[in-house]
Amino acid sequence: MRILISGASVAGPVLAYWLSRYGFAVTVVERAPAPRKAGGHAVDLFRPAMEISAKMGVLARIEERATGTDRLAMYREGSTRATEIDLTKVYGATSDRHVVIMRDDLSEIYYAAGRDDVEYLFDDSITSIDIDGDVTFEHAPARAFEVVVGADGLHSNVRRLTFGEEGELTRFLGGYLAVLSVPKALADAGRMIGHVGVGRLAALHTAAHLDDARAAFLFRSTAELDSGHRDPRRQKQILHDMFVGMHSEVDRWLDELEATPAFYFDAITQLRLDRWSRRRVTLVGDAGYCPGPAVGGSTSLAVLGAYVLAGELARAGGDHLRAFAGYELAMREPVLRSRAFARGVAKSIIPGSPAGTWALTRGAQLVSRMPAPLSRALAKLNTKGLRLFDSMQVPDYPEADV
Ligand SMILES: Cc1cc2nc3c(=O)[nH]c(=O)nc-3n(C[C@H](O)[C@H](O)[C@H](O)COP(=O)(O)OP(=O)(O)OC[C@H]3O[C@@H](n4cnc5c(N)ncnc54)[C@H](O)[C@@H]3O)c2cc1C
């Protein structure tokens, strides 16, 4: 059975790895000209994604590449003294097994795990998918596949070709997110610096193995802005106006806006699709069920979804309709819970009032001062909240064809 996957970031390579282990013939098409190299932004892997990575034999590599940011110095706007937060305690409260890693490091590790058994087409994109699985590309000749999977992110091409324009399918969570690359000398490896005020949050971090540092900005907005989806000049202006004057350190990060080699800016939106499959096509990871970038643990959801989809296809012996039904059933609950969680995080991580600013800093400080078993015990009382990702189950599937 021939399966085409669009997207080679996180969900795509994990899915490709498992499908090829189960004996399927897998092709991955990726718009970027080459596999991703260290960079992007920092993402979280919680227990289910760590377990799946262990099954893939890449856990040690992932842990070796972790960013190692274990302290946070958080300044409330207007105050000159930072609140010191022990992030290992905060992460320990949310998960028994958790790692922060740069998205592109993670992508490279998953890609390397499966690349010998998978056909990768870089610098290309799907232009059409017909009802029988005939696919045309921008560059490669047309080919036929039994199954096509969109693993091409929040603004998925496969989703647009199959389900229509995304405006109908998304919900704005009331904020924006931006990341830019800045000189490494501005940051300390191991220690993140954060500044939080009413309606805005900025943070800087790096890792020993990176050549640069990453400044991330989140801000509230009651309505979607006319930020021009592909107009970085306008987006940089909005970001500058939103944060200038917050603190001299933040102003220094903003000075890099013109020269930065990497800039990301997007609304924090949530996908609201209830079904992810149609005929021969299905969606995985952010393409199908992004709960909101940076607010909903979507990387762990993408890894879990990719593993489950491959397992259901193997269990159904390649009967894709049966497999898609099993996949949607298994992922429904984790997706719904992640959406609810992300809506809550989007509200609290960018405080809307001085009291919210205080509560965010003070809450993190309290957890970081508690003995680890106590903070973990408190967090465990609520699997809908802090321990959401650890409470997701990783199903067992037939032994892979080794
Ligand atoms: C700024 C930012 C911060 C984030 N922080 C966190 C965090 O702290 N914790 C967390 O868990 N998650 C975080 N996320 C989310 C996380 O990055 C995603 O959930 C995760 O990368 C999803 O993986 P994916 O493979 O589904 O999609 P993506 O990583 O978005 O990958 C999609 C892939 O598809 C490719 N592609 C796109 N269009 C096409 C096309 N037409 N043809 C072929 N290929 C195409 C892209 O080049 C890319 O390689 C953050 C996201 C952003 C943007």
Automatic annotation (TrEMBL):
GO molecular function: FAD binding
All residue ranges annotated as the FAD-binding domain in the record: 3-315
InterPro entries recorded: FAD-bd, FAD/NAD-bd_sf, FAD_aromatic-hydroxylase
TM regions (residue ranges): none
Protein name, UniProt field: FAD-dependent oxidoreductase
Natural source organism: Mycobacterium helveticum
